[in-house]
Amino acid sequence: MEKSAGATSSEKTLTDYLRLWFKWVLDPLGRLFLRLGLTPNMVTMLGLAGNTLGAYFLARGELLTGGILIAVMTPIDALDGTMARLRGEASAWGAYVDSVSDRYSELIIYGGLLYHFLTVGDVTGGMLTFGAAAGSVLVSYVKARAEGLGYEARVGLLTRAERYLVLAPALVFNLVYLGLGILAVFANVTALQRIWHVRKLARARMKRQE
Fold it and tell me: Going by C-beta distance under 8 Å and a sequence separation of 6 or more, which residues neighbour residue 44?
């Protein structure tokens, strides 16, 4: 799940709230995985592998199977941070690996969908997929670039958790156009929200320095 080792804001995203609300599930599962000898980074890679398998089925046009796999992988992906916390080994490197694998997972999923739409000659589906992928990348990039400059940018409508909560049901219930349309519009809106938020923070910093 999307997280930042160096977050400076007290604002919580849906991802943060989901971790709190489902702590009673995540903690026991995290302890079980640790007893089985798995490490947080191994679970991160498991999530990436599961989403890659889901993308394979999407590319074949088996949207229901791919959607189910992606839906199953989403909570598993939240376990790496839980396991690191339980081990007392949360680190910047672990957060970095998690964030990078999250980006790969999401783009691989969109890649599977894009391949399917191109194969069947569905231009509309392909364009919606591109729009959703572009928005998702920009949401993450704007946040990372802002944090590199010393600002926080965790605001916005569609963080990664919300995007998965839209995409997985859309695939499972065969509402792909609707789901991708929502993502294409509101992921890009989220990127713009973050840009505007950072602009306000930058202007406030400049005023303090005057």
Answer: 77, 80, 97, 98, 101
User: 3-33: per-residue pLDDT in tens?
Assistant: 444 344 446 666 666 667 667 777 888 888 8
Q: Is 102 one of the annotated active-site residues of the chain?
A: yes
Is there a domain that residue 1 lies in? no
For residue 166, give every residue at least 6 positions away whose Cβ sits within 8 Å of its Cβ, in sequence order, or none.
158, 179, 182, 183
List, in order, residues 6 or more apart from 95 with CB less than 8 Å away: 3, 4, 5, 81
Q: What total number of domains does the chain contain?
A: 1
What tokens appear for 200 in the block? 């306000």
**pLDDT tens, residue by residue, 29-81:** 888 888 888 888 888 899 899 999 999 999 999 999 999 999 998 777 678 77
Instruction: Report the alpha-carbon distance of residue 99 to residue 62 in Å, rounded.
Output: 27
In a domain, 4, yes or no: no
Q: Is residue 3 part of a domain?
A: no
Which residue among 77, 80, 98, 102 is the active-site one?
A: 102
Residue 5 lies in a domain: no
Instruction: Give the residue numbers spanning the domain of 84.
Output: 14-209
